Automatic annotation (TrEMBL):
This is valine--tRNA ligase. Residues 193-290 form the Methionyl/Valyl/Leucyl/Isoleucyl-tRNA synthetase anticodon-binding domain. GO terms for biological process: valyl-tRNA aminoacylation. The keyword Aminoacyl-tRNA synthetase applies. It is an enzyme of class 6 (ligase). Gene3D superfamilies: Isoleucyl-tRNA Synthetase, Domain 1 (1.10.730.10). It comes from Lasius niger (Black garden ant). One of its GO terms (cellular component) is cytosol. Keywords: Aminoacyl-tRNA synthetase, ATP-binding, Ligase, Nucleotide-binding, Protein biosynthesis. InterPro entries: aa-tRNA-synth_Ia, Anticodon_Ia_Val, M/V/L/I-tRNA-synth_anticd-bd, tRNAsynth_Ia_anticodon-bd, Valyl-tRNA_ligase.
Amino acid sequence: MVRDAHGRKMSKSLGNVIDPMDVIKGISLEDLQKQLLDSNLDPKELERAREGQRRDYPQGIPECGTDALRFALCAYTTQGRDINLDILRVQGYRFFCNKIWNATKFALTYLGPEFKDDKYNNTTCTDVIGDGKWYQRALNESCVQEALNNYLATYSYLDGYTPSQLDSKVYQILKELNINFANYLHLKRCYAAKTCDEALVQYDFALATSTCYNLWLYDLCDIYLEYLKPIFQSENKMAKLAAQKVLFKTLDVGLRLLSPFMPFITEELYQRLPRKKLIYPSICISPYPDSSE
C-alpha cells in the first residue's frame, strides 16, 4: 500500500491523496485545493484537508517526471509491503535524472565526433586488472567495495563512509596508492552489473536501484569524470583513447542497467552514444549487462 510521507493511509478527508499524474507533471497548491471541491467532503473535512495540503505541499508538488517516480517506487520496496511516499525523495531522483543527463552530455564532449564504439575491444575484468595487490585481492572478494574498505581501513576519518561515497580526500588517497582509475572503474562497473543482475532475479529492486545510483553518482560523476579532465587536456593520444574506451563502455553499461527503472531518459541518451553500427535499435531490446562487461 502506498501511504503518505507520515505513514498515514491516503484519504481525501486528510487531503493527503497523491495522484501520480500530479507527481509526474507537477501541480500548484491552488490547483491541489481546487481538486478537493470535486469531492463529497463536508465543510469541516474540507477545511481539514486544505490544511493538510498546505502543511505537506506548501509550494505544491514539483514536476518530477515518469522516470523519477518509477525509480522512487522501486527504491521504496525495501520498506516492505507499505510505501511511505515522500515527494521530496521523488524530487531528489528527478535531480538524479538531471545529473545523468548532464554527465552523459559532458562525457560525450570527451568522446568527440571521431570516436566510434568499434574501437572498444571486448575485455573482461581479469584482462585489465594488472599486477597491483589491491586488484588481485578484489578478484577474490565477493564485493569489490569490501576490498576497497579493507585497503583504506587504516584511515580513521573514513569512518561511516562507503567506497561509493568517495570524497576528495579519498580521491587523493587512491592517487597516493597508485591505483589505476580506469581499472578501478572497470571493477566498479563489473560489480554493479553483477549486483543488479542478481538483485533483479531475486526481485530486490531496492538493491538494484541503489547500485545504479552509486555507480552513476559517486563512481562515474564524482570520481572518474574528474579524473579525466587532466587527461583530455594533455597531448597523450594513447591515454586519451584508453580513457575514451572506458568512458564509452561505462556509459553504455550504466544506461542499460538503469533502463528498467528509467526507460525514457536512458532511451534518449542511448540513441546519442557514438556508434559505427547500431546493432540494437533500442535500449529496450539490448541485452542486460552482466559481470563480464
